[in-house]
Design goal:
The protein is α/β, with parallel strands linked by helices and about 500 residues long. The protein has three domains: about 80 residues, Orthogonal Bundle (Arc Repressor Mutant, subunit A); about 240 residues, Aspartate Aminotransferase, domain 2; about 100 residues, Aspartate Aminotransferase, domain 1 (Alpha-Beta Complex). The chain is about 40% helix and about 15% strand. The chain has 16 helices and 14 strands.
Length: about 500
């Protein structure tokens, strides 16, 4: 019985009793058009004839006639013992995003009336990560080395038997077992213990930033923001109506003294102390202490993005700012996008106790909850020791790939660019010689089948020499030299 119910639901099949066209012709034409327009794609199995008869209101004899006609025309094919399918020999329609199709169909329509945020969203890009994963794509972990078999075992363990706990909305702050596992991880690996009740789970790091700024600042309030800095985060804060207080970055990280002098009344500071993106520098201890003192004295907040803290190749990971905060001014944001894989979409905030209730409520209003199944699987993965083992393996792998990148890059890029590879993270910078424009050079790199980001895209106000951001973590060691040779050829053509 279950097999007979297989196949898509076809709501477009409608009979018009008043039409002059015979019923069989109406159904035949509607099915043909659905196939031609790509609504029924090649290889799609149609419902059993008995089911179609009941749903459409035709006799079985008439429906068989329709199907036989479409088979004769080449639109359908019968497979012995399996049923009737849309012919696999038909060309598949090009996969054009629906929003592009809609824009292409109405090029002359006036722009719609939008809210202020909606209007800004039209102008602000959020496409980081949408690029084809070509070699040297920045921020890309070695996804091919992720232990998917172990992940699947954890998934099967928490969902076996259709456990009710995995099927509901879940706790507004995130599943307790996952918050406990994250607290244990932070205590051991970041030397930063916290109570699981201080943690709120979010659908990724970007959602964590959104939750924090909406809870702590009003539109028009100032936010310290490093320049250069992550472009999508800048676009997010700008679109939400906050005033971006751009601060310089040097070898010691954010210029805290300069920011305090220029923007003393800012409401919040967004900072990446463990590894700045894209420059790769770390915030020095004197500046961390100065930042904490500014926040205390001005009743301000620090949003700490613990970017790439898991991957440090020279010594232990640096302590977080939160771990030395004695006045509860730091909101710590972490995620699993780089440590596991970007599509996992699980992030978290560690909050001062007085903010927990507010953040839980706001998270419930905005996100409701992160998929409970994913949270439980991640908790099982961490609790079983698989996360720590994976991090250990990836640190070793990325250290090897980093060394191979530096060694091969010095030779291949001599006279073209200077390699700057920080002691942590997944990316490196290639500072271009001769003052060439990094945006123009990137086009040549893309044409060579490689990927990179221009540093200019991350810079708002402070002029910087031209550079390209390259991700080495996703490139196998044995492919590093030939890919860098191809990269050098692209630079030579610029």
């Amino acid at each position: 019985m279950a097999k007979q119910l297989e196949g898509p639901i076809l709501p477009f099949l409608r009979l018009d009793a008043a039409a002059a066209v015979p019923k069989f012709r109406q159904v035949q034409d509607q099915l043909r058009q659905a196939i031609l327009k790509g609504h029924l794609r090649p290889g799609t199995r149609l419902p059993a004839s008995r089911i179609l008869c009941e749903e459409v209101g035709l006799s079985r004899q008439t429906l068989v006639r329709v199907l036989e006609n479409l088979k004769a025309e080449g639109y359908l094919e019968a497979r012995q013992g399996a049923g009737t399918f849309v012919s696999a020999a038909l060309p598949r329609p090009a996969a054009i995003p629906r929003w592009q199709k809609s824009l292409a169909n109405v090029p002359d329509m006036p722009p719609p009336r939008l809210s202020r945020i909606g209007d800004l969203s039209r102008q602000m890009s959020a496409d980081i990560g949408q690029f084809e994963p070509m070699p040297f794509l920045p921020n890309r972990p070695a996804i091919d080395r992720f232990p998917f078999a172990l992940w699947r075992k954890c998934w099967n363990s928490v969902t076996r038997g259709g456990k009710v706990a995995a099927l509901g909305y879940g706790d507004l702050g995130g599943e307790l077992i996952l918050r406990q596992r994250i607290a244990e991880y932070l205590a051991v690996h970041r030397h930063d213990p916290c109570d699981p009740e201080q943690i709120v789970i979010t659908p990724g790091g970007h959602a964590a930033f959104t939750l924090a700024v909406l809870a702590l600042a009003d539109p028009g309030d100032g936010i310290w923001f490093e320049d250069p800095g992550p472009v999508t985060t800048y676009n997010l804060f700008h679109t939400l109506g906050f005033r971006l207080c751009l601060t310089d970055v040097d070898g010691d990280g954010m210029d805290v003294a300069g920011a305090a002098a220029r923007y003393p009344g800012a409401r919040l500071a967004f900072v990446m102390p463990s590894r700045h993106h894209p420059l790769g520098v770390t915030l020095s201890l004197p500046r961390r202490l100065a930042l904490l003192e500014w926040a205390r004295a001005n009743d301000a907040w620090i949003l700490e993005d613990d970017y790439d803290s898991e991957f440090r190749y020279d010594g232990a990971p640096l302590p977080s700012i939160r771990s030395i905060d004695s006045h509860d001014r730091v909101i710590y944001a972490g995620s699993f996008s780089k440590a596991l894989y970007p599509g996992v979409r699980v992030g978290y905030l560690v909050l001062p106790p007085q903010l927990v209730g507010t953040f839980r409520n706001l998270s419930g209003l905005i996100n409701r909850s992160v998929p409970v199944e994913t949270q439980l699987v991640l908790a099982e993965f961490i609790g079983g020791g698989h996360f720590a083992s994976h991090l250990r393996r990836m640190r070793g792998l990325y250290a090897e790939r980093r060394e191979a990148f530096i060694d091969a890059g010095k030779v291949a890029l001599a006279g073209l660019a200077n390699i700057d590879c920080s002691e942590s993270g997944l990316n490196a910078l290639a500072w271009l010689t001769d003052g060439r424009d990094d945006r123009a050079v990137r086009q040549d790199v893309l044409e060579a089948g490689l990927q990179c980001y221009p540093l200019s895209d991350y810079t708002v106000a402070t002029p910087r020499p031209s550079a390209l951001i390259l991700g080495y973590a996703g490139v196998p060691t044995e492919r590093m030299r030939p890919y860098l040779a191809r990269f050098a050829e692209a630079l030579s053509r610029s």
